[in-house]
Design a protein that fits this description.
elongated; mainly alpha; single chain
Length: about 100
């Protein structure tokens, strides 16, 4: 028994012209994409724009109960946790110099 082995021809990627004119067959219907709201539209009134990416991280661990109370206080007073920390530190410095 003789087995004939032939090498497969390498598949070539379609050219730009072939890609642009070829119909795109998909088995799924196209999805509608919801418009993305501007970052300022999502932010509650009175809050400054996000400063994400600016500044330096300050990481430390606190008790879970303190973290929950701290976050709840910030939300109740329409503050970010960062704003609450900065305000608290400024007030502490004012009293303890």
């Amino acid at each position: 028994m003789t087995v004939k082995i032939t090498a497969k021809k390498p598949r070539r990627a379609p050219t730009l012209e072939q890609s642009a004119t070829a119909p795109q067959a998909t088995s799924r219907p196209a999805r509608e994409i919801a418009p993305v709201a501007d970052a300022d539209e999502k932010r509650p009134v009175g809050r400054p724009p996000s400063v994400k990416g600016k500044g330096r991280p300050l990481n430390f661990n606190v008790d879970p109960e303190f973290a929950t109370e701290y976050k709840a206080f910030a939300v109740a007073n329409n503050l970010t946790m960062r704003e609450l920390l900065e305000n608290s530190f400024a007030e502490y410095k004012r009293h303890h110099g």
